[in-house]
Amino acid sequence: MKEVRLNNGVMMPAIGYGVYQIPQSETERCVTDALELGYRMIDTAASYFNEEQVGRAIRHSGLKREELFVTTKLWVQDYEFDDALRAFDRSMKLLGLDYLDLYLLHKPYGNYYASWRAAERLYKEGRIRAIGVTSFSDERLQDLFLHNEVKPAVNQIETNPFFQQQASNAFLRSEGIQHEAWAPFAEGKDGLFAHPVLQSIAARHGKTVGQVVLRWLNQRGVVVIPKSVRRERMAENLDIYGFTLTDADMAAIATLDRGRSPIYDDQDLATVKGIGTYKIHD
């Protein structure tokens, strides 16, 4: 498994398995399939409501804990300092783990300074190997690390052929923060899998559009966490190192960038309010 080195020296797999929107009833089976196929990084979150099922699959896998890289995320509702500590303990209990590999603040809303300082404390105590954020814009991320002690190791942001995050990728590289992509397939929106540019590149390499997209991201130095509930598609998504996209391929994909999300507008006030006030527990 190809790995990347985070800014604190921790090694992170370059490709993992994401469980966003996988129902509880399917999660254990899906994670079991992923681990059997060779995935060693699993990405979940408190707001996905499937941490317990992820934990069961890990325990039943027979794999050594040190072979795995497990990520979960803290939801905005629990961003006050003491709430964040309690939420971390809840996640760890559900996962059944003694330590976590990566803990991410899930959105850049609410009192994320307090939650970051709680994450710093857990990191310094050795309960987490690396800490980072999700969906932070460059300016919010910079402000966070300029006024705290531990620099984020990862920013997990939406990145796909329609929203390529070129400027953010350059900024993250310059700051030594790992770029990780969520929604690498744009959740299938706007005909991504049928796009003629991607289909043409895939045909030339004898690969699928999904494999081309994941390879394109990895060649840009971006970590990926594709999701599928189908075992054959999981295997396909993992098989991205037997070919290399040419400069012409990369240039062709670059033309697809619209500079905005095909999924949601994070500048829309109603959207931001809905995310920022969404509660996952009483």
- Principal-axis shape equals globular
Order of helices and strands: EEEHEHEHEHEHEHEHHEHHH
Strand content: 5-15%
Give the number of helices: 11
Describe what this molecule looks like in 3D.
By secondary structure, the protein is α/β, with parallel strands linked by helices. It has a single domain, classed as TIM Barrel (Alpha-Beta Barrel), CATH 3.20.20.100. The chain has helices spanning 24-37, 51-60, 81-95, 112-124, 138-146, 166-175, 196-205, 209-219, 231-238, 247-254, 269-277, and strands spanning 3-5, 11-13, 17-18, 41-43, 69-74, 100-105, 128-134, 154-158, 178-182, 223-224. Helix 1 (24-37) crosses helix 9 (231-238), helix 3 (81-95) crosses helix 4 (112-124) and helix 7 (196-205) crosses helix 8. The protein is globular. The mean pLDDT is 98.
Quick structural summary:
Helix content is 41%, strand content 15%. The chain is an alpha/beta fold. The protein has an eight-stranded parallel β-sheet. A two-stranded antiparallel sheet has the order 1-2.
